[in-house]
Design a protein that fits this description.
The complex is a heterodimer of chains A (about 200) and B (about 160). With about 200 residues, chain A is α/β, with parallel strands linked by helices. Chain A is built from 5 helices and 7 strands. Chain A has one domain. Helix content of chain A is about 40%, strand content about 15%. Chain A has a 5-stranded mixed beta sheet with strand order 5-4-3-6-7, covered by helices on one side. In chain A, helix 2 packs across helix 3, helix 3 packs across helix 5 and helix 4 packs antiparallel against helix 5. Chain A is elongated. With about 160 residues, chain B is α/β, with parallel strands linked by helices. Chain B has a domain of about 110 residues: Nucleotidyltransferase, domain 5. Helices cover about 25% and strands about 25% of the residues of chain B. Chain B is built from 4 helices and 8 strands, in the order αββββββααβαβ. Chain B has a 6-stranded mixed beta sheet, covered by helices on one side. In chain B, helix 4 links the parallel strand 7 and strand 8. Chain B is elongated, with a radius of gyration of 26 Å. The N and C termini of chain B lie far apart (about 85 Å). The relative contact order of chain B is 0.18. The chains are: A alpha/beta (about 200), B alpha/beta (about 160). Chains A and B meet through helix 1, strand 1, strand 2 and helix 3 of A and helix 1, strand 1, strand 2, strand 3 and strand 7 of B.
Chain lengths: ~200, ~160
């Protein structure tokens, strides 16, 4: 009886195998990557669709059924779209003594492009037969143009690119810091607000 | 006569493997927390287009997913399968989109409903007509925050894949 006084040790050697099996099961069934995508906000369903805007403040982008891109009446390659959109938004074409003059714009201040980033509206019209993938590319280039301008101004004002500001905002930080970053993000967004409309084509 | 006894160098002690399970369990818990399990049964093909100016969709609890694509080969026969919309395990007609997405919104906790976002996961082969109709339906039910879900990649290659 004296042998039973000490409980026998449980062999934990196979425990590792069991844990490995579980680990491999999770590795196979789960995926790490989170979804990514282009965020957009649709306009409200409006009852009064007629708004008057100056022609210079509107950049018309059209995609036809053959996936060709037309910007302001000219056929354009997708590669050139980004610089075209940047020059349109960043134009700041008002006179220097105008009260709405865009001081931070670095564009060429041409007479046929937008007056101020706040006025600049981009319109995308698509044919029902254009490819969704092509449309996503176009949206991507437009957002890329906005991000480029926002990064530029954010680097100038705060020394940090806009992307990094947004990234920092998502991290776990104190509420005061969070408010400070939120203020900066909102200021940059107000400088270059995304105004993208997708009017319906009315067949007459 | 020192009290410290030297080990006999000819006989090495066995390495204890008792802590191995603990290490593996830590790994296991790490993977369980960082990964997500996808349990959606896809009824449509879903080859997302590429984009590079993307935002992350990391708050999965406030997302309504809408899949658009040709019906998956497992559920259809023939090469040109019709383009369909899938919300929550079911193929829906275009006029049901509003109702189904509101139902998904209602299933969400109340404090998240105001920040709900619709993730449009549309296949490369989809034409804009379906997407335009879909957006119009979402506008009707006031779900205005949308996300064209993509994979990260070169946008100029989008037109080449088919």
């Amino acid at each position: 009886m004296s042998k039973l006084k000490q409980a026998p040790e449980v062999n934990a050697g196979s425990m590792a195998d069991i844990a490995f099996l579980l680990l491999i099961f999770f590795l196979v069934t789960a995926s790490i990557e989170t979804d990514v995508g282009l965020n957009r906000i649709l306009p409200r369903e409006s009852t009064d669709p007629y708004v008057e805007i100056k022609a210079r403040n509107l950049l018309e982008i059209g995609i036809n059924a053959q996936n060709q891109l037309m910007v302001e009446g000219d056929i354009l390659g997708l590669e050139e779209l980004r610089t075209k959109v940047v020059s349109f938004i960043d134009n700041g074409g008002l006179e220097t003594d105008d009260k709405d003059f865009c001081g931070y714009c670095k564009g060429e201040r041409l007479a046929h492009l937008s007056e101020h980033p706040d006025e600049a509206i981009i319109s995308i019209t698509t044919s029902r037969d254009s490819d969704y993938a092509y449309y996503v590319s176009v949206q991507n280039e437009i957002i890329g143009a906005y991000n480029f301008l926002r990064n530029r101004e954010s680097s100038r004002l705060y020394g940090v690119p806009y992307e990094i500001l947004v990234q920092n905002y998502g991290e776990d930080i104190g509420p005061t810091e969070k408010m400070a970053i939120k203020g900066k993000i909102e200021a940059i967004r107000a400088m270059f607000p995304q105004k993208i409309i997708e009017p319906e084509i009315i067949h007459q | 006569m020192s009290p410290i006894k030297r080990n006999n160098p000819t006989k090495l002690p066995a390495i204890s493997t008792a802590s191995l399970p603990d290490i593996v369990f830590i790994l296991l818990f790490f993977f369980m927390t960082v990964t997500t399990i996808k349990n959606q049964n896809l009824l449509v093909e879903n080859q997302l287009p590429m984009a590079n100016e993307v935002d992350k969709l990391d708050k999965t609890d406030r997302i309504i997913e809408i899949f658009v694509g040709p019906v998956s080969p497992n559920y259809s026969n023939g090469d040109n399968a019709p383009i369909k919309i899938q919300i929550e395990d079911r193929l829906v007609a275009i006029n049901e989109v509003g109702y189904c997405s509101l139902k998904a919104l209602g299933a969400m906790p109340e404090h998240l409903q105001s920040s709900a976002m619709v993730s449009i996961k549309a296949d490369n082969k989809v034409k804009m007509g379906v997407i335009t109709d879909l957006k119009k339906e979402l506008q009707k039910v006031n779900l205005l925050k949308i996300n064209y879900t993509t994979v990260e990649g070169n946008v100029f290659k989008n037109t080449e894949l088919k």
